[in-house]
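Aim 2 progress update. The chain analyzed this quarter is reproduced below.
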Amino acid sequence: MTNTPRTPTALAHALLQARHSGELLDADDWADVVRTPADAQAVQAAMAPALGWRVAGSQQGPGRVPGYWKSGAPRRDAPLTHAPLPEEGVWASPSVAGGAPLHLRGIEAEIALRLGRDVTAAMAAALQPGEGLELIDGITAAIEVVDTRWRQHLKAPPLLLAADGLCHGALVLGPWQDASRLLPRESPRDWSAQVCRLRVGAAPLQAFTGTHPLGDPLWLLAGWLQELVRRYGNVPAGTVVTTGTWNGLAFAQAGDLVVAELDGIAEARLQL
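Predicted structure tokens:
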């Protein structure tokens, strides 16, 4: 890389260009730009104007609060990580990837949640991990396509992966279901018994039971909302978060049909 300033803003522009062109960046060229989690957030913030988003920390600025997010952690005692997802890569099931520039085609079967009301800073601050069910009006199955704009793929430094949207390629959302029906407050859902079924191309059907890394996909709501109000002041109704993988990470090939079913919730389909 020559004659290109190495700043978070320059990296943001390079990542946005790579997302559209399919060209991969060399992590070695940018490793010294993102040295801390704050640097990774600075890259995400620099992408905001091009994506129509409000810049984080600007509670009254132009643009909108990002409407789609991924959030999660490998276990409850690990820090949650959060990334906004470009709307152009959020598709309704059944969906066809078409000419989307995907490289890895990693597959995660997930559950997505949708806010049914605006959430203020005070409301978010009052939440403890595992709370917030009353704020949710929709639930569905989702497929996250894991991808990266780095030539080194998932072997790129973790902070560069974080700057690149936490390895996000696309999100397919199944039909929204009534959360009050599927997640009644008087009878909590037994997530340890939740079955997730995943089929990728011609590979055998796989089934996973109770395998969400946090034990309960709603466990992250408090931390996710508290981070969003820190960035934007409030979170509008309709904002969606996908909550982490039930199957670990599978890999697909171009032409594969991917089907993720969360028993009793919904199904999502993606033709790659």
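The first strand starts at residue 68 and ends at 72. The helical segments are 8-21, 37-51, 121-125, 158-163, 179-182, 221-232. These observations will guide the mutagenesis experiments scheduled for the next reporting period.
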